[in-house]
Amino acid sequence: MSVAGYAVGAILLASCLQASIGFGIGMLAAPIVAIVDPGLIPGTLIMLATLVTLIVTVREREHIDLTGTGWALVGRVPGTVAGALLLAALPERGLAILLAGVVLLGVVLTSAGWVPAARRRNVVLAGATSGLLGTATSIGGPPMALVWQRNSGARLRGTMSGFFLIGSVMSLVALAFTGAVDGHTLHTFAVLVPAAVAGFALSRYVNRFLDSARLRQLAIAVSAIGAAVLIVREVL
């Protein structure tokens, strides 16, 4: 498989994961895409995540927790601004190591099964953290997954997707002001759209054989491996 093929495969599987459990496109695909072309992080991945979350939001619109989404977005605004400033200040190598570190932290927290209460304060803090990390590295899922993990099925997918749809648009606007969205990221987004749509379609069939718990475990394993490879690549 060519280098570009690995990126397409990563987007296909990551979009399937995103459509199945409400997050994961950045966590699964970012380490692989960063190895192929660091310039695509975070702009292209956030655009692809926006597309997939839009489709899922339309599908699960009746199950969205509007109150929880609203409080999470209150935190997302300052987090998004901080993430854009952090991205502008970081060198490419520093961003790659930060990205890998965020993935590994998310892996540890989700594997440990930590379940914070979904109180208003925690939801706002999770939204702010998600905005910072999502804008800087395209990986904003773990904070929201932690605080909303007591939800399940359509409610989890719908609420996560509703939050990330609006949050991703915020991130893209902030990144456009810092110059992180350009012709290269837009062109690559267009090229990878079929893979993202195919991943969404695949999720409808995969879920019949692979439940969300097993899919989540697979995502954690692949994410950890990808992050470790990225760290080794940058350090050596």
Structure description:
With 236 residues, the protein is mainly α. The protein has helices at residues 3-21, 25-36, 43-59, 66-89, 92-112, 120-137, 141-147, 153-178, 183-209, 212-235. The protein starts with a helix and ends with a helix.
Fill in the keyword field for this structure:
about 240 residues; globular; 10 helices; mainly alpha
Short synopsis of the structure:
This protein is mainly α and 236 residues long. The protein contains 10 helices and no strands. 83% of the residues lie in helices and 0% in strands.
Unreliably modeled segments: none
User: By helix and strand content, what is the structural category?
Assistant: mainly alpha
The geometry reads as: globular
Task: Give, in order, the helices and strands.
Answer: HHHHHHHHHH
What topology does this entry show?
Elements: H1 3-21, H2 25-36, H3 43-59, H4 66-89, H5 92-112, H6 120-137, H7 141-147, H8 153-178, H9 183-209, H10 212-235
